[in-house]
Specification:
mainly beta; 7-stranded antiparallel beta sheet; disordered N terminus
């Protein structure tokens, strides 16, 4: 399946490498993401039914660090409360706008991208001050049912990966080793959590210049069940919150600024 990633973006300002992170094994590769406090410290993680769970405080800014373990560039979709970090839309992993990460590198997503030049910092808030609630009030869609979940889905070009893993050789082997089978672990649903709901709103404005690039992806986490999920408290919803949807929706260019 070929997918033309016409909505992949490169952040031109902020890069870092996390020391440790939440991980997910997909096709034999270890994909990682971390949620960092404004001080740069990583949030303490708890195991909740084999899921990563964070305990957070209201009115605290945070960032999401996403790592690329592959020897080729990848495109990664990052969602918060079910909304895409670039355009603020509720989309499937396939149709979501994505960030480009260089081989064996990482990118820090610090906020909602509101234009080609600026973002609004991620800010843990009460539900009433969350972007999901603002979008729900504006559009009349049930966005708040997915409060309290951060999602990341990675995509790459399989031909590029195979070329990187099999560079030209001066000689041939007498026999080729058998290829190992791939593994694909699905995530289990989180257990019930506290009744008070937490969401993510918009904090301070910050410069974050981006540029749009073309990207062809034919491998990756196309299914919602495959994507990484990081849950955070004080969040509880009647149904399991999901970082993406299976169907595709129309996309705008960037996240609408709820603070204007």
């Amino acid at each position: 399946m070929n997918y033309r990633g016409a909505f992949a973006f490169v952040s031109l300002t902020i890069f870092s490498l996390p020391l440790c992170a939440a991980t997910i094994d997909f096709n034999g590769y270890n994909f990682e993401a971390s949620v960092l406090q404004s001080s740069g410290k990583r949030y303490r993680e708890f195991a909740d039914n084999r899921q990563t769970l964070l305990k957070v405080r209201a009115n605290e800014e945070y960032s999401i660090v996403v790592r690329n373990p592959l020897p080729v560039r990848v495109a990664v979709a990052v969602s918060i409360d079910g909304l895409n970090s670039i355009d603020g839309k509720r989309t499937s992993p396939r149709s979501a706008k994505k960030w480009i990460i260089a081989p064996h590198s990482s990118i820090t997503v610090s906020g909602w991208q509101t234009s080609k030049q600026t973002l609004r910092k991620f800010l843990f808030t009460e539900q009433t001050a969350s972007l999901a609630q603002w979008q729900e009030n504006k559009e009349g869609k049930p966005y708040t049912r997915n409060l309290g979940v951060i999602g990341a889905a990675w995509f790459w070009n399989q031909n590029e990966l195979e070329d990187a893993l099999r560079p030209p050789q001066p000689f041939v082997e007498d026999s080729a080793p058998a290829e190992s089978g791939s593994r694909n672990k699905s995530s289990a649903a989180p257990s019930a959590r506290a009744e008070r709901s937490a969401g993510t709103g918009m904090g301070r404005k910050q410069q974050n210049r981006v540029t749009e690039v073309a990207f062809d992806a034919n491998a990756g986490m196309f299914s919602v069940k495959d994507v990484m999920k990081i849950y955070y408290e004080f969040a509880q919803n009647p149904a399991e919150p999901l970082p993406f949807v299976d169907d595709e929706e129309d996309q705008g260019r960037f996240t609408p600024d709820m603070r204007k």
